[in-house]
Amino acid sequence: MKNWKFVMASTILGSSVLLGACGGNTAQQGSSGSSGEGNSESETAQLEGKVSGDGSSTVAPIMEGIVEEYAGAQPNVQVTVGVSGTGGGFEKFIQGETDFSNASRPIKEEEAKSLEDAGIDYTEFLLAYDGLSVVVSKENDWVEDLTIEDLKKLWVEDGTTKKWSDINPEWPEENVVFYAPGTDSGTFDYFNEVVLEEEDLVSSATLSEDDNVLVQGIQADPNAIGFFGYAYYQANQDTLKVVKINGVEPTNETIESGEYSPLSRPLFTYANNKAATEEEQVYNFLEYTLENAGEMAEAVGYVALPQEEYDKGKADLEALKQ
């Protein structure tokens, strides 16, 4: 398997990027480090066709790695995955435009109802754990730790101009500059639920579905603060400083244990059952994803699930064919 942390550090995915896997003649040798090697029929039965997905930019680093590794196992299967955000991905999934939809939050009741109305049956698969990370510039030498209450005071729109000194009078009387994922993002939804408690986000925030825009904005401004998935902090930790929340720093250990609460969360992909059962290449790609998601999650900076969770996902996938 490639050094995916190096790849993440050098080329973080943007929301306008399409992840593609379409192998050539030389790709049949496969990817020498693929963790799925020898685990299924995916290395022996050569398939053809297309697989399409969309969704969360948080899940994108995991899926980008899997797509590229899969090209070695199945060079004649073209996999394209958009990264328009969790909500945007579900919109395409509901329209029947995609075979699977990546999400950084569980599906909403209204989205599930829309799928039911459209006659689309689906299955939810867990991929990894993430710790939503609050970050500031390395030049910020005053913020080390914030409470959830501090975050809410900063991020909720209340008609005032927010200053760092509002949180701690010893901090600078400088306006806080906010960067946040766009409203189609599952990360936005999660932060809205657990921090803002459904109140409005501060109106001065720069919003983007492209996490790389957020990274660059925060890097450049000592008064900036923002949040996104743990892997994006990991890939940029030389130029960003992560903020402890309630005294706990996000790490693999604190995310997996749940100590980094309430900002630890699972990451998902949702599969169209009909596509998975009727199109062999879709089933094969989903199987390959579940076989490799844990190792790829760790490689790009997230936290793998216990093996029994991946085994359960594979059993759920296999049950679709019964």
From TrEMBL:
Belongs to the PstS family. It comes from Planomicrobium soli. The lineage of its organism: Bacteria, Bacillati, Bacillota, Bacilli, Bacillales. CDD domains: PBP2_phosphate_like_2 (cd13654). Coiled coil: none annotated. GO terms for biological process: phosphate ion transport. This is Phosphate-binding protein. Gene3D superfamilies: Periplasmic binding protein-like II. It is found in: Cell membrane.
